[in-house]
Amino acid sequence: MKKFTRREMLKATVPSSLAVMAIPTIIPATAFGANDRLRVAVIGINGRGKDHISGFMNQNNVEVATLCDVDNVVLKDGAKAFEQKYGKKVNTEEDLRRVYEDKSIDAVSIATPNHWHALAAIWACQAGKDVYVEKPACHNLYEGKKLVEAANKYNKIVQHGVQLRSSVAMQEAIKHLRDGLIGKVYMARGTVYKWRPDIGDQGKSPVPAGLNWDLWQGPAQTRDFSKNYVHYNWHWFWDYGNGDIGNQGVHETDLCMWGLDVGLPEEITSAGGKYLWNDCKETPEVLTSTYNYPKQGKVIQFEVRPWMTNKEDGIEVGNIFYGDKGYMVINGYNDYKTFLGKDRTPGPARKEGGDHYKNFVDAVRARDKKLLNGPIETGYLAASLAHLGNISYRLGRSLKFDPTKETFINDKEANAMLTRKYRAPYVVPDKV
After folding, report:
1. Fold matches, 6-165+356-379 and 168-199+229-352+388-418
2. pLDDT 10s digits, 283-294
């Protein structure tokens, strides 16, 4: 797949000769127009899925028609809560493949664990559904590229779930960077300072009643069940999650790249480790990553830090952009401030959010990918930056990367980590 520049993101195309996977293509039941009712299925409803449900139910002429989760206890409770809140029943499904067979579903919203994101979205595109997919868009670079190909091949609207892309304040902040408010912007810094406690080690245990453990694991290799995985701490295990740089951090990696106007880097260096807890997490508690763009004279610094920590100019989770005439501080997703000159004189500032779900719905109704604030191409890049940092950390060395070929340079060991071994039938196809 070609390298996407920021200016080319919405012009991406793929060969039309790619083969179709086993999931059948289904034409949506509705030809969208201004008055058409959009029927959405939410897949994965225990965590971020709750926000997806309310986000879509808050839209005009949009109905969450189906809830899907591999944990039938969660599914039953979610359906009950939905009925109590909205005064109507909702369909339920354990298996997302049954959802994709339903011709009345126009779009799916994916909030599963990370290792399911890309495959669930690819299958949805093949089944004729538009897709809102949580961050990170993919669990590794290979499947991210396949998702971009699928979105373009089947001409589907695919939104990456990074809300800051629809923030009025963030859009204004990026315009300031482009217009030279802080001068030549040469460095972006991302920070993720989150409260991440000891999770212990609960060992193996029987699969809880109601949980389809095989389906939960999906594309990952089979493991015995542990309470340490379900329902949140899977983030800290390589088979399912990507650590905090691939969890919270994808919001910030996305903003780093957006603000600097860059794609994938040429040099990656990461270092860190587990310094606090003697628990069973596999991912690092502390991670410092540097992404260098020598040809463009730009650099990204990224830091994951847990537990007790100072703030950086008032932020714990956010971004800082540095230019030769000032700097910009972004706190969270919707709040920016600027400081100009040697005296750090306060400059333009704003705090205002946006509605990322509405942006997706508007693009679906118009059948226009160009309306998307978070197109899947940007999701692929933001997730890939996190994955590249994790690969450098796991190998314990700096890496050279070719952003055009999207492979490491003369490094078989690192290139092997651009994908994973998939478990049938949950296989990300080479030809989508």
Report:
1. no
2. 999 999 999 999
User: Do 69 and 231 meet the contact criterion of CB atoms below 8 Å apart?
Assistant: no
329 close to 339: Cβ distance less than 8 angstroms: yes
| 135 close to 251: Cβ distance less than 8 angstroms | yes
Please choose, from the candidates 327, 306, 328, 326, the residue with its C-alpha nearest in 3D space to the C-alpha of residue 317.
306
CA distance 144 to 125: 14
Task: Kindly state the percentage of the chain with pLDDT values over 90.
Answer: 91
Identify the H or E element spanning 54: helix 48-57
- pLDDT 10s digits, 224-242: 999 999 999 999 999 999 9
Q: How many residues does the chain have?
A: 432
Measured in degrees and rounded to the nearest 5, phi and psi for residue 46 equal: -85, -35
Class (C level, CATH) for 6-165+356-379: alpha beta
Whether residue 354 contacts residue 174, with contact meaning beta carbons closer than 8 Å, is answered with no
Terminal alpha carbon distance of the chain = 13
Q: Average pLDDT, stretch 74-82?
A: 98
The 10s digit of each residue's pLDDT in 173-207 is: 999 999 999 999 999 999 999 999 999 999 999 99
212-246: buried (b, 16+ CB within 10 Å) or exposed (e) per residue? ebebbbbbbeeeebbebbbeebbbbbbbbbbbbbb
- Domain boundaries defined on the chain: 6-165+356-379, 168-199+229-352+388-418
Structure tokens at 277: 């807890």
Nearest to 294 by CA among 266, 330, 322: 266
Q: Over the stretch 249-270, which tens digit does the pLDDT of each residue have?
A: 999 999 999 999 999 999 999 9
SS3 content of the chain, % helix, strand, coil (to 5): 35, 25, 45
Please, is 24 exposed, middle or buried when counting C-beta atoms within 10 Å of its C-beta (0-12, 13-18, 19+)? exposed
**What's the CATH architecture for 168-199+229-352+388-418?**
2-Layer Sandwich (3.30)
Q: What is the mean pLDDT of the chain?
A: 93
C-alpha to C-alpha distance for 246 and 104, rounded to whole angstroms: 33
